[in-house]
Amino acid sequence: MIGSGSRGQYHIHNLLNIQHADLVAICDPYKTNLDAALALYPSAKGCKDYHEVLDDKSIDGVIIATPLHLHARITLDALASGKHVFCEKAMARTMEECKAVYDAYAKTDKALYYCMQRMYDEKYVKAMQMIKQGLIGDVVGMRCHWFRNADWRRPVPSPDLERWINWRLYKEYSGGLMTELGCHQLEVCNWAIDKMPFEVTGMGDIVYWKDGREVYDSVNVTYRYSDGRKIAYESLISNKFNGMEEQILGKDGTMDLSKGVYYLENDNMVPGIRQLLDQIKNGVFASIPTAGPSWRPELRSEYVPHPVISGKTSVNGGQSMVSADHDGSDEILSAFCQSCITGEKAKNVVEEAYCSSTLCLLGNQAMEQHAVLQFPDEYKIPYMKF
Prior knowledge:
- There is one protein chain.
- With about 375 residues, the protein is α/β, with parallel strands linked by helices.
- The protein contains eleven helices and 16 strands.
- The strands form four sheets. Strands 13-12-11-10-6-9-8-7-16 form a nine-stranded mixed β-sheet, with helices on one face. Strands 3-4-5 form a three-stranded parallel β-sheet, sandwiched between helices. A two-stranded parallel sheet has the order 1-2.
- Helix 5 (about 95-105) links the parallel strand 4 and strand 5.
- Helix 1 (about 5-15) packs parallel to helix 2, helix 5 (about 95-105) runs antiparallel to helix 11 (about 350-370) and helix 6 crosses helix 8 (about 175-195).
């Protein structure tokens, strides 16, 4: 384990339940995190320099859970040392680094995984099968958002550790909301239609957390595919009302991936007359003159949620949804540990991580430049379809 902060310790908890893995070393130059991780897995040895881990020929694979700007460097060193690699998302801090990692992976026989856990989440896998089988009809668009209400800042024991601990807040180390959150959501959009958007534009700002950070706390980005379909992506961290959603919009229905439910356009179980009476009762039309225009507010209809996976739903705020106790993180980590034994490479994980990571980074560039950018030819890979 290289990097033993919150995410690294999360993986350690999962490793404790994986029978075909043994954690033999934990590496972190920050003693506080290292000590906490060693307390979770006392049989592992501790070290500060990751090269010490890479030089150990008895170690089959490494898990990288460091700040983003270190992902590419350590991944390249680990592959060169003959190790299988599992790395946290996103793939790298820059487009150039992403391409360097992809090219290195293409030349190695070692397994490389990125923590794109939705690819191993049962409800996502089943939902994608349903989409591709035509359940919601032709996909006409995608909407994703991720809202939180927290400053993303962690306590710092001394000022010299500010950038070390709060690396997510500074552009030198982080891609902000796009690489930390958007990376997952853009991946599922491409997965749903097996294509890459060719163009992106957007706006990013520091709206609320004016505390010296450099990365945006509010982003709105639009990705456009060659056929005109679009991803509308939004994230901010000063209001959590809307939570997280990933919606694939079809002509015949909508797949709400994060909740594990789908809705059908022609399955509206609220009769029209009842809906009209309810709207009148609630005063929806009270402000519309009798002799005025025929326009009326088009409020969202009451759709019936259908579970993607039968028998695995719970009720949250009156809405049916799949339990989020498992998100695929333990499954993809277990698969990596199995690859350390068999040498088998993961299907499409590196490619999907490359696509979503580069899209996030291109989105950041578009916001910074206040421009409409097209995906650069030099970063296209054979896996991509535009």
